[in-house]
Amino acid sequence: MNPTSKRISAAVLSLALGFTLAGAPMLAPVASAQISITAGEASTVTLGSNVSLTINKYDGLPVTDPADLANLAPLDATFTIEKVLLNNNLNTLAGWQELSGYTPTTAPKDTAFTPISVTTDATTGRGVVRTTDDGTIIDGTDVVDPTFVVGAYVVTEVAKAGYSIAPPFLVTLPFTNSTNNDWNYNQVVHPKNQADITVEKGVEDLGATIGSTLNYTISAPLPAGNLTSLEVLDDLPDELGTATNIVVSTRINNGAPLVELPLIDTTPVTTGGTDAVPNNLSIVFGELDRAELESRRVGNPGLELVVTFSAVITSLPTNGTIVNHAVINLPGGLTFSTDDPNDPDDGAQTHLGDLIIRNVNNEEPAVLITEGSATYELWRCQANGAGGFNVISQVSAATDPAGPAVDTFTTTGGTITLYGVQAIDWVNGAAPTAAIGQDLCVVELESPDGYELNPEPTQVEYVDPPVGYNMEADVIHLASDDVITLPATGGNGTMILIGAGVLVAAAGGAAAVRGNRARKN
Questions:
Q1: What domain count does the chain have?
Q2: Which domain holds residue 205?
Q3: 12 and 127 inside one domain
Q4: How far is the C-alpha of 261 from the C-alpha of 327, rounded, in Å?
Q5: Residues 6+ apart with CB under 8 A from 98
Q6: How far is CA 298 from CA 38, 303, 501, in A?
């Protein structure tokens, strides 16, 4: 091989290995069988040499510094090794040139080769495939297969529950050391260690309705090492306006206080918020801000990136649910999302429905009171243990699907329908607590003419059979003449009697106070 051919061959080999180890650090091989390339030799690749492939797999976030691997827990993962079908052997330049045109997905498979399966050891995270047992003690899974010889192979990780897999990659046996062009028949690879990173998307939406503001939180753990890239993306649903009040922070763990990150070379970008333009929030972190995140990550393995923002509900969802997902792109092409195809209830969700309030009488069955009108408020409420409800916080709703939301609602013809009412049992992305109020109640302010005001909050219930998150409340009214029979003096006489009762009660209270004072003296 003349010097020119040697340089071409090395360049082609470098390209081929670019598919193999991009983003994955190389550590020392299990054993070395290095042969120096000497100018003038026809080829230095020996097709009959024994080869080995060592796969190290770890549980944790990706790292860019090999030294960080020691801090990660080993992981048992299964890999399938398939041989690439080449028309030319790797002891020829033509073989390397042929290989350089392939990627892990386009490389043709040698159907005459039986794929090899290896599962890395759960204790060491290591799995080794080799041509023969040469006496070397393997600290991990050891697969000996005489068909595993010089050539190119596609390595594919098998899906493992709870983990995202590394993309397929190419390995060549042998490969060259880029420093001295020595051939090495023992390859060591570290497929990108990828725990099933959970991107959390939370929402604070107590009292949500059209026109109200939702407050979102996106959080995800940060990898150690060099953050060569970092993006946070949020494609807001059509029912929301443009993201506002965007703040980037970190926290040392979930539940810890937020520490704001003053952005230096990062500018959150919002687009759309109209029917014509997608409503997106994009945060592409600049080099200086990534460096600050790296420094915060040192010594804080649980460090999380947190993005908070607000958005207004501009329209009501046709299916009753506003779902908002987020995506975080980490170095090495790793992408994590809150959108899990196996979980229909993932992401940050706000549930809204219609509520129909009816004025009914006390008969069995109850009859709609169509005369007059009644006025109501809507409250979060909580059962008081005595058969009734205590109101906690007032909520708004709209009497028209297009809004706006109002605080009081007046019936017409005995009913009124409210739109954009937050679901009874879903607040802030979870079942509501007693402090928030685990129920909705209707409180009457004015009753229909001829009927008494209902003195108790009326519980709101889902319609039966269910229709989305639609709800109903029948407020029972007693006819005024069923409650009290006025004396001959009429209403004024009644007020005189009530007033007299108040005076008697007041006198009794005053006497009680005097008695308490006398006893104390």
A1: 3
A2: 200-345
A3: yes
A4: 19
A5: 86, 87, 88
A6: 46, 9, 75
The pLDDT score that the predictor gives to residue 193 is: 60
Q: Are residues 469 and 370 part of one domain?
A: yes
Sheet containing 52-56: order of strands: 141-144, 126-130, 52-56, 186-189
Q: Tell me whether residue 385 is in a domain.
A: yes
pLDDT of residue 464 exceeding 70: yes
338 and 410, same domain (yes or no)? no
Whole-model pTM: value is 0.67
Is residue 194 included in any domain, yes or no?
A: no
Q: What is the DSSP letter of 457?
A: P
CATH of the domain at 382: 2.60.40.10
Q: Is 169 exposed, middle or buried (0-12, 13-18, 19+ CB in 10 A)?
A: buried
CA-based nearest residue to 150, from 190, 184, 116: 184
Task: Tell how strand 231-235 and strand 213-221 pair up.
Answer: unpaired
- Pair 96, 51 in one domain: yes
Structure tokens at 323: 């779902």
Given a cut of 50, whether residue 143 has pLDDT beyond it is yes
| Tokens representing residue 347 in the block | 């992401």
- pLDDT tens for each residue of 364-382: 999 999 999 999 999 999 9
Rounded Cα distance between 71 and 91, Å, is 39
